[in-house]
Each structure stands twice: as structure tokens, then as C-alpha cells.
What we know:
Elements: H1 5-11, E1 13-16, H2 23-38, E2 47-48, E3 53-54, H3 76-85, E4 96-100, H4 113-121, E5 130-133, E6 138-141, E7 148-152, E8 163-166, H5 169-181, H6 195-208, E9 211-214, E10 221-224, E11 230-232, E12 246-251
Antiparallel strand pairs: 1-10, 2-3, 3-4, 4-12, 5-6, 7-10, 7-12, 8-9, 8-11
Amino acid sequence: MGFNWNFFNRFGWAVLDPDKEMYEWIDQAKKISQQKLDKNYFNKKQLRCGGTWFVGANFLKNDSHGKLNGVSLKGKAVRSIVGRYGKLFSEWDQAQVSICYRGYPQPSKSETLASFNYRKNYFGAHLDGIIPIGQPKRRYAQQYHTFIFGIPLVNFNAFAAPLVVWEGSHQIMRDAISRRLLKSSVKLWKDLDITEIYQEARKEAFLKCEQKKIVVPLGGTYILHRQVLHGVMPWGKHGRSDEKGRMIAYFRPTLKEPQIWLNQNI
């Protein structure tokens, strides 16, 4: 059995229980990540929020099939994803490794007070691929992911900066953005300012959608709809995780055809 796609279609997320086929890849991903971090083989700009969050974009140098140091990306979740989305993307991207540490988040010079408060109170809720540009920040839909596939690399509890989704928000966000983008050629989407539309849709989602923390044990995985609103909850008093922090690998393969990004049936 793979992901429950009926549940996914309705709520914008789904999980799978631990799968022994994932353990070798997880072990390899954690080992490589820790070695690079210990040796400072990373861009220091990816360490944010006062040193409590490592963004880790494109951190793992896996191949186009997700293979990492000869270890294949495989298992029930991968087969389920490929069964649904395999024809829509041509390769697995180089995985992000998102790490949160005790005390997340802390203020940083690169973040305004308003942004910091939004991160604390609304968990930095966002859609991947909506890029803030300029001063003041304006938002543009510039990256068209097929889905977001999360693979925890350590065990952690529900207070250790878990991912939070707003259930059903993918429908609200997609509908609002579609009203702006579908009036224009897909070639122009990247240059269309959707700031106000995006912000109003976010507000609607906060009012109408239930928050859900996603925490799965090591070996488990989850998938998010590409337009579901999601963020990271602050590390709580009772947060427990690996001594090296809460570590999650994410894949976000790019769609072959950008126009599919707004297709409500996929």
C-alpha cells in the first residue's frame, strides 16, 4: 500500500508508516549531512534565525533518481509517488536537509520584527515556489514543484519544531492564484506580482483551515500537496530530538510542464 491519495486530495497531505526499505537511504543521508556540517562544508547564509535553523537547500548531492552514494531511493512511498506523478517530472532534485535546533526561532539581522513575529505566531506559513523579491518584498510564482516529499532523518517529538500544515488550504491557495495567473500565458507567470492575492488567500486559510502537526517516526515519510500552506512550529519547552537537531530531508521535483502547477486534478 502507498499513500492514501483520497485523503491527500482532500487535506493536502498524507503519511506512510516506517518502511524498512527507507532505512539505508536515511542512514546515508544523515551521515553525509553530519559530515558536511561538522567540516563546515556549507554556505553560511543557509544558517538562519540566529543559528537555530539550517535551511540546507540542495544540500544532498543525490543523482537524478534520488540515489545517494550508491544507495537507492526506494520503498512504498517512492513507488506510490512515481505511480501518481512519475510522468510529470523528469528527475529528482538534490534534496534539501532542513535542521532545526533547540530555541528555534531566534531573531536575526536579515529578518524584520514583523517577519520574526510571523514566524513565531504563524510558523512562517508559506507556499514553496512563491518567491519574495525586492524591498519591500513582492511575491512571484517562479518555481513549479510537483509535490513536497518529506523524509525525517532522526526521531523527534511533536514539540521539536514540527512541520505544520493547514488542512485543505491547497484548494484555497490554488483557486486564488489561478484567478490571477490563468488570465495570462504561462510564459509570463514568473513576472506577475501576486502579493496581495497570496496574502489574502493566506488569511482565508488561517481562518478556515485546521492546523495539523506532522510527526512521523524514523523510516516514515510524508507528502505535501505543492500548494498546501505549511510552516515550522517553534521549538517548545518539551521538545526532544537527536542531539544534532531535528533533521528532515525534502524532495521537490520540478514539473516538466509549468501549467500543470495549477491543475486541480493532479
